[in-house]
Amino acid sequence: xxxxxxxxxxxxAYGIVALSQGxxxxxxxxxxxxxxxxxxxxxxxxxxxxxxxSRQPQIDAIPNGGxxxxxxxxxxxxxxxxxxxxxxxxxxVRSYCEKGDVICDYTKASAASCFARPxxxxxxxxxxxxxxxxxxxxxxxxxxx
Length: 145
Hints:
single chain; 145 residues; alpha/beta; 3-stranded parallel β-sheet; 3 strands
C-alpha cells in the first residue's frame, strides 16, 4: 500500500503511524524504502513495536521507557529483523515503548505480568498515558518543517 501511494502521489509529504503489529509492518516497510522514497517522509510514529531495537535509543520517545528488545526479535527473527532506522531518518522517527510492555520491552517478568493481568499490561496504555498525544503533537511540528 505504501509503495502504491508513493508511486501515485509523487512529491506529496507523508507520515506513518502504527501500533503493535502495525508498527512491525510499518518498520518492515520503512527499512525496505530506498532514500529516494523517503524524501517526502515527514514523520513516523511507532507504538508498542514487536521489532523494537534497544540498541537504537536515539529514536526512543519515552524517557525511562522500555530498554529491551521486542518480542518478535527474540522469538522469531533475531536481530536481523529488528527495526534499524537509517541514520538519515532517525530525526523523523519516534518509537514509543512503555516499560514492561511485553510486546516491545520483552522480559520474562513483563511476560508473566502481562499474561497474568492482561488489562494491566502497559501495551494497552499508550493513549491513557498521553504518548499518542505526544506523538501527534510532534508529528504536527514535523509536518510544518
